[in-house]
Amino acid sequence: GAPSRIEWLMGTPLVSLVVQRLTVDEFGVKRQALGVVANVLQAFQADPRPSTAGWAASLVYEHGAVAPLVALLDVHDADVLRVALHASGGVLAAGEQLARSSRGGVCSNPFTLPFAEAFGVEKLEELQQHPNPAVGRRAAALLDRYFGGVGDAMDASEDAAAADGCAFTGGGEGREPRAVYVF
Fold this sequence. Notes:
- The structure is a single chain.
- By secondary structure, the protein is mainly alpha-helical.
- Helix content is 64%, strand content 0%.
- It contains ten helices and no strands.
- It has helices at residues 3-10, 14-21, 27-46, 52-62, 66-71, 78-101, 112-117, 120-127, 133-147, 153-164.
- The longest helix has 24 residues, at 78-101.
- The protein is globular.
């Protein structure tokens, strides 16, 4: 949808309900909720205003979406994995924009540690061997960009978070290709 409509949506209690649906047992409901979260993140990344991507990702993060997004990296459906990887990348990209815009760009990404704590790094490492080459390439790209490739990325995220002491209040614009996810 249009950024103005999604901005309105973000101000309602519906976001919490959608994020909660990411954790329900029925796979079809999870797929639909994932599509909504991915579209919300994508709409804000496409918005030309510099603060919107970080703001949207912060709200998604505040509603507890990181762990359920990471949990969806365990599914065997390549379409769901593709969207979950894209949504995870959207959150991490927005965190990178937040880090660049705070304290002269000396802050660390505020979303890498929660992603790593939810075992996201391990899941990305496993997905590099996925039978679908597009899934494997996307997982490798996320590892390389946000976690420095292979290694103990969680320790690096913890060290950076502890060292910089930054507070985040708004972000930047993402540059991933625009896509709308419909299952």
